[in-house]
Amino acid sequence: RFGGIRKPRLGNSDLLSMARSRSWLIGSSRNLNYSRTDVRSWYGAQIQHFLTEGVDFWWNDEGETQYFTFFDWNTAQLNVSNTTLPKKRFFTINRSYSPGMQRLGGIVWTGDTPVSWAALKHTAGYLLNWGLAGAGYITCDIGGFDGLDDPPDLLVRWYQLGVFLPVMRVHSWRRDKAHFPFLYNGAAAAAMRNALNLRYALVPYYYSLAHRFSLTGELLMQPLAMVFPTDPVVADTTTEWMVGDLLAVPVLDLANIRLVYLPAGVWYEFNTTITHKGPTRLDAFVPLESQLVYVRQGSIITLAPPLQYTDQLPGGPLRVQIYPGADATFEFVEDDGETTAYTNGIVRSVTFTWSDSSRTLSWSSSHAPIDAHAFTQLFAQVMYSPSPLTSTVRAFTLTGSIVFP
Asked: CA 393, CA 380: separation in Å to the nearest integer?
């Protein structure tokens, strides 16, 4: 996708003279006052041609001029988008959050983050608090922005944290070494590649959670206190969080050691059959190429095959991974990924159900596949100890079941 970066101000002398004559600027600055309807209309007319020339979304930067600037700025962009491309989803990324932006399609990043271990450690707390304030889609500059080149291990750990943010976004300052994996040494590059592969594998799961968020308001990135409100240990925890039934525990310093707290319940180490019974604390050694993720017993996680970008979906069969020990359900959702047709019910919703006693995965779909990017095959993998059981690949029919011996 191609995004156009925007600033809220004018630089052309003639336009500045025109804007001043109409009292369109904020004080004596060059910044447009987007709270005015006429400014929003004029601005929309100036950017309209970009929408038909290939700009897919806007990247709005440096708009901290008034409290509601980003909301009003997004409103101007949304209005012209709806007029020009009425079926296209609206999306922007913004350096600040104004209440109400989440209704428009604007997401937020945390600004010019320092390049440091301290900034990495604080990032998740910032995002969790923004989520509680209503900004459900938040992200950061992975690797940091303001500072010297990243040490390879810092960038790796930031990538790994980014896998479990609502939006994973890598960015850097032009004077610094770009944060591309292939510019770093072999071990760091491989670790970053592993993180990216995991993020793409989780796309079907995250997309389903995003639909749930749109319908129920349940955040993708949830503080532990929201999920375990009676556990006093997690009341102020900001270095672990839930994404659906996944518990993310990133490494946040050089030591490669992580103190883990697991709330009540049985927890699997992701993609393994190893379990731990909570509440408990663990001291985990985490090599650079590894990351800590736990899954609640009685969970279903839907995973994609290896992908380079989302337009490669489905890329093969859907892996339906079950963490047994309790019954489980999961609502898997697909749509066309591009338009607003989902608001008119053009959605494929599949209810997966795991019966632990009968060792059976069953499913029931609301629709046939929506488009060419929908999954048409699946297989199930149950994380039984000592070795997972994996079914054969099956057609992803409207209804079906897989029974494990």
From this structure: 8
In sequence order, what are the residues at sequence separation of 6 or more whose Cβ sits closer than 8 angstroms to the Cβ of residue 311? Answer: 373
Q: Is the pLDDT of residue 345 over 90?
A: yes
Per-position b or e across 292-306, b if 16+ CB within 10 A of its CB? bbbbbbbbbbbbbee
Mean pLDDT of the 37-46 span = 98
Per the CB < 8 A criterion, the answer to whether 156 and 250 are in contact is no
Spatial contact of 333 and 207, defined as CB atoms under 8 Å apart = yes
3-state secondary structure 140-198: CCECCCECCCCCHHHHHHHHHHHCCCCCCCECCCCCCCCCCHHHCCHHHHHHHHHHHHH
Structural element, H or E, at residue 92: strand 92-94
Is residue 302 helix, strand or coil? strand
Contact 273, 284 (CB under 8 A): no
**pLDDT value at residue 203:** 98
Q: Are the C-beta atoms of residues 301 and 323 closer than 8 Å to each other? A: yes
- Condensed to tens digits (0 to 9), the pLDDT of residues 178-224 reads 999 999 989 999 999 999 999 999 999 999 999 999 999 999 999 99
| Alpha-carbon span 81 to 102, nearest angstrom | 16
Cα–Cα separations (whole angstroms), residue 334 to 338, 365, 371: 11, 11, 9
**How far apart are alpha carbons 89 and 335 in whole angstroms?**
12
Q: Are 382 and 388 in contact (CB under 8 A)?
A: yes
Cβ atoms of 159 and 195 within 8 Å: the answer is yes
Per DSSP, 69 falls in state: H
Distances (CA, A) of 47 to 50, 52, 206: 6, 10, 32
pTM for the structure as a whole: 0.96
Q: How, if at all, do strands 394-395 and 377-382 pair?
A: antiparallel
SS3 209: helix
Residue-wise burial string across 366-375, b where 16 or more C-beta atoms lie within 10 A, e elsewhere = eeeebeebbb
Contacts of residue 389, defined as CB under 8 A and 6 or more positions apart, other chains included, come to: 381, 382, 404, 405
